[in-house]
Amino acid sequence: MSSLSQRDSKVIWHPYTPMKVAPEAIGIVRGEGLYLIDDEGNRYIDAVSSWWVNLHGHAHPYISRMINAQMKELEHCMFAGFTHEPAVRLAERLIEILPEGMEKIFYSDNGSTAVEVAIKMSLQYWKNRGIKKTRLVAIEGAYHGDTFGAMAVSARSVFTEAFTDLLFDVTFIPFPSTENKEQSIAELEALLKNGDVATLIVEPLVLGSGGMMMYGPEVMEQYFSICKKHETIIIADEVMTGFGRTGTLFATNQVSTCPDIICLSKGLTGGFLPMGVTATTLDIFNAFYDDDRTKMLYHGHSYTANPTICAAALASMDLLLMDSCTQSRIDIENAHIHFKESIATHPLIKDIRHTGTILAIELTTDTTSYHNNLRDRIYNFFLSRKIILRPLGNIIYILPPYCITIGELEYIYQCIRELFGVL
Ligand SMILES: Cc1ncc(COP(=O)(O)O)c(C=O)c1O
């Protein structure tokens, strides 16, 4: 192991890592487009976009340049009582591309905080209006982040187990699989009829950490119209699905009913710097717009709307909206479809599914779970072929940066076929 890895193991505690049994971390010294390069010169394909954040490749020169230019002008200033061009410009441009109805942008630091803000906004919205609605509804299998509110609206799972007793009550409706979707919709409608549900929170079209579980826009359309009928706030957590992953710029572009709140992070800055956005409607905003100061939103972070990060997001958006990037996303999806058709009947495959640029393969095994023992074997197999694929238990997925070429995708597909030969 390299000296960087050894020094790391003395002082670092890594996220989502069983520190006693995990191998030493690989020391990365450089990023170049699709590749991460380690301190021994190995070049790894980043097939999961570094936890789903990277859109245009690592160390993209245009984004780097725009960040650098901004840092020379204004690196940061507090965002209460002060504002700056990058934050205003980014909000204006987000509002232009988000589904209709989003008119106000609240900045925070990451996906979990974008969700925390959304939950607080939705609950206080009803309180400020003097209406007693406090119950939250979410989908079984959901993952919305690691802070306490975000954990509460996430599935009770191995991720939340140590804290279960401390999480506030949330009602979960069944995941809308082909077999369960009618029941899921019916349960939502029955719950909402009680009149006490403040909010429904969903990951639109794809439940990410829950295992890349996918459902169609027709289900989302029904969820949303039921919420509108029963005056329930809809939070669409687009932290993973936003910025082109699902075939449209946002997954919620695929329905005609608009959510009330949209959470963004990950791809927002092209994967360069952390930022959360909670976008909302004028209706929600106006419930806080009051002479009575107790009605304001008591939430903020030290680095809110950091100008350098806003510059990264603006630069990433420039690239995202180019025709060539749209075409790349279409090419990735077509390649996935082709590959999916070519291996769909393989006996090791329990299910293979795709939405836009995301492809997921669920392997036949005794249990589908995050700690499935196939996980390490699969991870190491791909690493030995210089591909970073971090399976979710027995679920392999590809969620690539948009700069990936068809040749590079074919190499990943080929390695998946080889994996099936050795399992
Ligand atoms: C849908 C969704 N929401 C929220 C989060 C939390 O984001 P972060 O890790 O930036 O806190 C994630 C992270 O994977 C996510 O997939």
Which keywords apply here?
16 strands, 7-stranded mixed β-sheet, 423 residues, alpha/beta, binds pyridoxal-5'-phosphate, Aspartate Aminotransferase, domain 2, 2 domains, globular, Aspartate Aminotransferase, domain 1
Question: Could you please describe the fold and organization of this structure?
Answer:
This protein has helices spanning 3-11, 49-52, 61-73, 85-97, 111-128, 148-152, 181-193, 217-229, 282-286, 307-320, 323-343, 374-384, 406-422; strands at 28-32, 35-38, 43-46, 104-108, 135-139, 171-173, 197-202, 206-207, 213-214, 233-237, 261-264, 276-280, 349-355, 358-363, 387-388, 395-398. The protein is an alpha/beta fold and 423 residues long. The protein has 2 domains: 3-61 and 324-422, Aspartate Aminotransferase, domain 1; 63-320, Aspartate Aminotransferase, domain 2, CATH 3.40.640. The strands form 4 sheets. Strands 4-12-11-10-7-5-6 form a 7-stranded mixed sheet, sandwiched between helices. Strands 1-2-3-15 form a 4-stranded mixed sheet. A hairpin with a 2-residue loop joins strand 13 and strand 14 (358-363). The longest helix is centred in the C-terminal third of the chain and has 21 residues, at 323-343. It is globular and about 65 Å long. The two termini are 27 Å apart. Residues 110-112, 115, 143-145, 203, 208-209, 237, 239-240, 265 line the site of pyridoxal-5'-phosphate.
